Amino acid sequence: MNDNFQAYVAAARRIAVDRKIIWELAPGTDGRLSPAEAWELNSFCGTPPPPRLLLSDLGTDSTSLEPLNKRRTENAMKVIEKMALSEGWQNLIKAAVLDQIFVQGNKAGHALSGVARPLRVIATCAGDAEPWELTVDHITLAREVAAEVQASGQLALLVDQVTRNIIDHHHLADRCPLQPASARRNRSKATPGQRRADPRQDLAQRKNVEKLPEPRAFWELVRIVFTVQPKSFLDELRFAQVKILILCGLRIGEVCMMPMDWKRRREYVDACGKPAGGSGGISVSLMLRYFSEKRSLEDNDGTLLYPEVQHIPALFESHLQEALDRVARLTDPLRRRLRSQFYTGRLLPEFESDQLVMVVELYPYLSGNPFIYLDPLEAELTAKYKQSFDVDVLQEIHARQLELACQGAEIRNEVRIYFAKIRRGREKDLPFRTKGGHPLLRSDYANGYFRIDELEALIRSVMPTKLSDTEGFRSTAGDIQSYELLFLAPKRSLGEERNGGICDVLRYCFVGRVTTEDLMINLGDRSGMGKSIFARYGESEEDQQLSVDTHAFRHLQNTELFRLGIADTIITKRFGRKSVAQSYEYDHRSLSEELAAIDLPKVAETTLGPKAQQVYRMISSGKVKGPLVGEFLRIQHEQDDDAAFSFLAAEADGFHTTPYGFCVNSFTVDPCPKHLECYNGCRHLSTTELPAHRINLERLREQLKTAVVTIEARPSQSIGRSNQLMHAKTRLDNLQKALDSLPGTQPFDGGADLSQAISPVQRSLFDD
């Protein structure tokens, strides 16, 4: 163990002591911790669940064992089983988690999945090696295993990040640095196309197009959320969330944490104090209030939410306001119940603690199913409610159930099964009682009663994860309670989600916040974890297999705003970012769109022709270089813009692209005498980042290599053979120079000008 590792762990131990966190943990043989011992990272960060984030496993990573053991078996090595990690690895994981939360200020989710998980993958692949004994081979193996576990490559990227930012940064291993060496080893195996950043086949192809939503998935999702009737109450909420993602481009966490008090309006007046709309401006604009994720602050007690506002374009105002107002109406019963639960600390605050209530009457409060008695109109009433999710229909169902009770209708068997299940083994804690309160020896669903305080105690004991989300949040503007959020939903309403029924939101006592995980699953962003919106509402089998990344909408709107010419400062402010540079990371315009967005000086608009204007845009963006570009910049620097644009107007009108790169030269009088031979050392050739150009150069290089081999194999020593060989080798050398040059550079700087016309006059011995 080296000194750096000891110091890193010791610092984390001090944090644990100061925060009264139990450092010494005793995992089982498989590395798992008991629920009582597991670290609840939510409480460390000051962010209440859901989701509940626990550091509950200090053992080998189970998903990495299969690909790792496959390699070990091939090398005749002993397989590794699920087991607890060594004390050194456990200390590193615990120290890294505390450092991420209390020193780096990161969230619990990042500390758990972005740090602890990849460290466990590295530990699994390291075998018997301790953290300070790690080598490049261990990191390389961990990266390969992680890439096989998660095909997207995200886990492998996290392995690289923890190696660089934790192990190497703090010099925890004796052989640091480990990440640069392993990264070089991986890059050496990449193809030239993989090594080049941002490969685009043509000017119309968007940059990093994989970060944008797939067009078919995007338009199918638009069709679903704007035109299709949702089949469940929860789907109605999800549709509204997707509308916010599309119209506002917010992060998924910002959508789920949308406050009920979201609406803000700003009025504008002219110089005379009258509404600006009368003077050609805007009188009133709508703004959306939300909590920005990346701008949250930290203090000694955890995370502070940061309120932000986003201006809504007039085109989207009606759609957004209609969607959010409807969500507010639908969730109002849940909000009132959650508020009452928060202030009373009770699960069923509409009843007194010592009140006796009929067992069957309590069934909708616990299960959410409003149908207690068998009803021939159940299907009709269910369909009626799903048409609008109007609470008046729920009241109609409740009134009919009371009527059926008076008629002595048969109790549904599901009622007996439900209460028998939650009372199993705890019958003494929740006995059936008579109307007078005396315990009954047998279950009596027709005439039996439950005492409310006994029922609430049993629910807290047997269903702790189903309890309402009453924990609040802290923000820079004050405390925010869960009932003040817009998106509230019945918590784990299985009757609606699994069985196609409905949930009585007027009586159901378990209320929760809609989580990011739920929306990610329903957009297919996490495959294999449940049916997505596409699977339930897609028109065709192909549509039902679609999915979309929840963050792709933010990339899309950012790109479209750039494409429409919106200033980068406005885009940055709209998305609540800290710097303009962040907005350009979300810019996926094509090269032609980037060039079209460059504003031309007035002198350029009047002096330059269309092709020369395109050349100027490429010069301004640094997309092309060469003798003409250098001369233009020299004239502009030494003289003025007018002289430079006059030069460009005369010389750049012949700008065009070749199969091998860009050519910036004037052919206004004669065509190029060496057309398509610019790869052979012409100084006007400027290489590009387009893969098609590189493929053409590589194909031509292989042809010339074959020609050289063929010529050299000939036995003749004639002058013609020597000329052919020299001709081929010269072109081969020039091709290699072009391939080795960086995109946008001049590979033959100072080379020959092959565009010069060949004189038709025959040279003689007397010519110089």
List the helices and strands and how they pair.
Layout: H1 3-18, E1 39-40, H2 41-45, E2 54-55, H3 62-74, H4 87-103, H5 108-126, H6 136-149, H7 154-168, H8 179-188, H9 192-195, H10 215-227, H11 233-248, H12 252-256, E3 263-267, E4 284-299, E5 302-312, H13 314-330, H14 332-344, E6 356-358, H15 359-367, H16 378-388, H17 391-406, H18 413-423, E7 449-451, H19 452-462, E8 473-475, E9 478-480, E10 488-490, H20 494-497, E11 511-513, H21 516-522, H22 533-537, H23 541-544, H24 552-563, H25 568-574, H26 580-584, H27 591-596, H28 602-607, H29 610-620, H30 627-638, H31 641-651, E12 656-658, E13 661-663, E14 685-686, H32 691-712, H33 719-740
Antiparallel strand pairs: 1-2, 3-4, 4-5, 6-7, 8-9, 10-11, 12-13, 13-14
Helix pairs in contact: 1-4, 3-6, 4-5, 5-6, 5-7, 6-7, 6-8, 10-11, 11-13, 30-31, 32-33
Largest sheet: 3 strands, antiparallel
Task: Return the domain count.
Answer: 4
Low-confidence stretches: 184-199, 759-768
* Mean pLDDT value: 84
Overall morphology = globular
Biggest sheet: strand arrangement: 3-4-5
CA-based gyration radius = 35 Å
The top-level CATH class of the largest domain is Mainly Alpha
Q: Characterize the quaternary organization of these chains.
A: single chain
Strand content: 5-15%
Could you characterize what this model shows?
The protein has 768 residues and is mainly alpha-helical. 48% of the residues lie in helices and 8% in strands. It has 33 helices and 14 strands. Strand 8 (473-475) and strand 9 form a beta hairpin. Helix 6 (136-149) packs across helix 8 (179-188). Residues 184-199 and 759-768 have low confidence and may be disordered.
